[in-house]
Amino acid sequence: MSDRANQVISDILRRIHEAIVENDVTYEEYQAAKQWFIDVGEAGEWPLFGDVYIEHAVEEQAFGNRAGSQGTILGPFHLPDAPLLDAPFELPHRPDEPGDRTRVTGRVTDVDDNPLPNANLDIWQADASGAYSGFMPGPPDGNLRGQVRTDADGRYEYVTVIPGPYTIPLDGPTGRMTAAADWSPWRPAHIHLIVSAEGYEPLVTQLFIDTSDHLDNDVASAVKEELIVHPERADGGLAFTYDFALAPARTPAVA
Ligand code: BEZ
Ligand code: FE
What we know:
Elements: H1 3-22, H2 27-42, H3 46-53, H4 55-63, E1 101-110, E2 120-125, E3 145-149, E4 155-161, E5 166-167, H5 173-180, E6 186-187, E7 190-196, E8 203-209, E9 228-229, E10 232-234, E11 237-241, E12 244-246
Parallel strand pairs: 1-11, 1-12, 8-9
Antiparallel strand pairs: 1-4, 2-3, 2-7, 5-6, 7-8, 10-11
The chain binds benzoic acid and fe (iii) ion.
Benzoic acid binds at residues 48, 51-52, 73, 75-77, 168, 187, 220.
């Protein structure tokens, strides 16, 4: 075993052993926990469990000191290869897509405010009822998923609808554990983005809608004050602006 694996796994096990002693965990509770591990595996929920309860700590540890804009968790609902959009840059949606139509604009720069032309924004979000295409019944494949590029001045824009808040699945083992602990299962309304440009650290982030419920008790602990946006009435819909500053890539590209 490598020194690293030995160190990390020993530390995690030691903390579990300490929790067992401090909470006087019983054999019945241990057997229930073992059954729950089996249920999570059979339901295919280990990725969900990790992204809800663990990813935020890894993100903060990995990127807490990074220069530029704040990131937050990726979550389990990203799909690669969303279409690159042309003007008028509307995320693909149903003809009768429910929700408030919103124009999002902003710039992508380096940390010294120099514009980054041709930066890529990979965008995905739930619909107004909180459903993600490709994962939940309702929206068709590809709904509210797309990529846009910045222009020569580093500016981007796209049109979408305000997403709804949603709960993690309530009927699976992650939801049952959440209910057993009497925790809220809700995520506040948010739009996911991965902002990338050659030579810069990709920024995995989310923009949270200021009027959403559950901003202060996100089940995934992913809300950061700097990521809350404030849509305002404009041109018969809503609009908001958000600028992204990217930090230099950690490892120089190999020629
Ligand atoms: C999400 O952001 O979509 C998400 C994150 C963690 C768990 C479940 C969903
Ligand atoms: Fe999400």
